[in-house]
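ok trying again, last paste got cut off:
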Amino acid sequence: MNWPTTALTEKIGIAYPIIQAPMAGGMTTPQLVAAVANAGGLGSLAAGYLEPEEIRLTIAEIRTLTDRPFAVNLFIPETVSDDPERIERAHALLDPYRRELGLSAAASPVRYLPDFGEQLAAILEERVAIFSFTFGVPKPDEVEALRQRGIVTMGTATHLLEAIVLEESGVDMIVAQGLEAGGHRGTFVGPPEQGLVGTLALIPLLANHIRIPFVAAGGIMDGRGIAAALALGAAGVQMGTAFLTCTESGAPPSYKEILCHGTEITTTLTRAFSGKLARSLKNRFINEMQAFEAELPGYPIQHALTREIRQAAARQGRPEFMSLWASQGCPLCNPKPAGQLLTDWITQVEGLLRW
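nice, full thing came through this time. structure:
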């Protein structure tokens, strides 16, 4: 059946108001993005850690797999505070893990992240359908450049004030990220602890105060969560963890396995892996580094310092040293192809809302 249109489906021309969240680090493969798009949802490429040429090549690959719209996501740059003492302390704390994984001692990277301006230029050149972003707001001239090319813009808010800032900046839509969400907190106004608002509380707040369309994110794992978000006033949902165990996900096998056996109390908020507050499944690295989080450098420095550890752990099947981003809803993960997941959720929503 044809679902009733929402402001999300109408704006970007998709059949169902379901967005596959951009999950950085290789999770959102071209195959996953295309599978979601072909099933009537909105696939999202997480490009925050990709160099401009990698972005272009990946967009080209996605376009060979689907002719439907999809989103590309970047991280808004933040001020990087180099603190030699914190960096030296981090090296000292990380060296034992490097040795255990067979890695040599590390030198500090020359650059922590790709150049945002060059990344955005690639997206503008490719004229993707949707540009989504987190950790802040693009500059006014950047928002205007995107609009001039007909690119829909979508920013992340973790509390009402951030949503108001995004609306006033002229973006088209908002992703409202509840505290249940896996991965990094998108907070950019105030400390991240200020943005720990549950999805159930956040969505009605935005419905009462925000005029532009917004979607719900955080802990939504199936048709029940989708139906609830729509009933609360959201124009759609963004789901990340629910896609991590699907066939097309780029998550390592050991990551998928542990996700399927997690519980709602096995996630925690941590700064250990990246210097930025993020929700992950608990593991040895998080437990052992917890006492030292206040001594670590911030994002993206800590993220760069742990990169080789995380990559080696993934290659070696050592989840105790991997950043296992996961929402509180992870016990509801269902290891099916992405298209089948969407079909199941659509059927569930239709039964619940009697469409």
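cool. The chain has 14 helices and eleven strands. Residues 155 and 166 are 7 Å apart (CA to CA).
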